[in-house]
Amino acid sequence: MRHGLTFFTLYLALLPIVGYATAAGSGVGERWLAYYSDKASPADFRAYDLLVLDSDHRPALAPLAEHGKTLLGYLSLGEAEQYRHHFAAVRGQGLLLGENPNWKGSYFLDIRQRAWTERVIYELIPFLLHQGFDGVFLDTLDGPLHLERKDPERYRGMGEAAIRLVRTIRRQFPHIRIMLNRAYEILPEVAGDIDIVLGESVYADYDFGSESYKRVPQQLYQAQLAYLKQAQRINPRLKVFTLDYWEPDDERGIAEIYRAQRANGFVPYVATVALDRIVSEPRI
User: Fold this and answer.
1) Are 158 and 144 in contact (CB under 8 A)?
2) CA 181/CA 7 separation, integer angstroms
3) Quick one: DSSP state of residue 126?
4) 120-178, pLDDT tens digit by residue?
5) Residue 23 has pLDDT above 70, yes or no
6) How many helices (H) and strands (E) does the chain have?
């Protein structure tokens, strides 16, 4: 996940706010988490049904699968990180567009290029499935969408390419689970092609400037609810998961986030910004 609201706040202000109503497909009762480390034991995941794990730094998958966990592997669709095994190859193909100023070592990708789609379809997703994942968690599509808004002439077609890429993944892998992080701008077009949409930092987020956890501004919170509910109306089977960040020792604060998101009909998880530890839901 890409934390923070740097790009996100900017483009939400440009989009219309739509009305919303409760829809089906909420997955009430399901529990999930995102965890990007290899330190936890299988027993630590006992309370969770669906796990989003990093494709490289992760626990062994077989013991988790044996206990019936649904396993989704992380896949960055809009950016390439220097430490990923495919970074040198995509750089050699001329697919990099420049470093993300907010994430050192992560470079925007020209997702309009057929070479990127082919790598995703024929290498990256098969690599995840071969490891034992049941599906994919698609991240960072907000980046290319931001580039097109910022410079429509130079980056024309990024939005169309993002839609095409998600649809191609579904067409080529019709039976896997697909979870998409945000990308609200294209969500109405791809809501029928995914199983789960993740609302990241809907209620609470980490402020890197003040190095503290904070509530998301009310206007932004309401805007995200609207986009997520709209997607559920388009695809009533779509589940909405949320990932909010909060101080792990503030049990009352965490419990309030869980209550609020479940009241919205969403499936919540609250974590630290690093996603390298499991934060249990408080029993209060």
Assistant:
1) yes
2) 14
3) H
4) 999 999 999 999 999 999 999 999 999 999 999 999 999 999 999 999 999 999 999 99
5) no
6) 10, 13
User: What pLDDT digit, counting tens, does each position of 28-42 carry?
Assistant: 569 999 999 999 999
Report which of 257, 284, 270, 275 is spatially closest to residue 37, judged by C-alpha positions.
Answer: 275
Per the structure, the complete domain to which residue 197 belongs is given by 6-14+28-271
What's CA 59's distance to the chain center, in Å? 20
Q: Please report whether residue 21 resides in a domain.
A: no
Q: Is residue 283 part of a domain?
A: no
3-state secondary structure of 5: coil
Distance between CA atoms of residues 181 and 140, nearest Å: 7
Beta strands in 69-201 (DSSP E): 70-76, 79-81, 96-99, 106-109, 135-139, 177-181, 196-200
Which band of pLDDT confidence, cut at 50, 70 and 90, is reported for residue 12?
low
Q: Report residue 103's pLDDT band, with 50, 70 and 90 as the boundaries.
A: confident
Rounded-to-integer distance, Cα 271 and Cα 35, Å: 9
Residue 48 resides in a domain: yes
Position 22 in a domain = no
Question: What's the CATH code of the domain at 72?
Answer: 3.20.20.70
What is the number of domains present in the chain? 1
Query: For the residues of 58-82, what is the DSSP string, one character each?
Result: ---HHHHHHTT-EEEEEEESSEEET
- CA distance linking residue 55 with residue 179, whole number of Å: 15
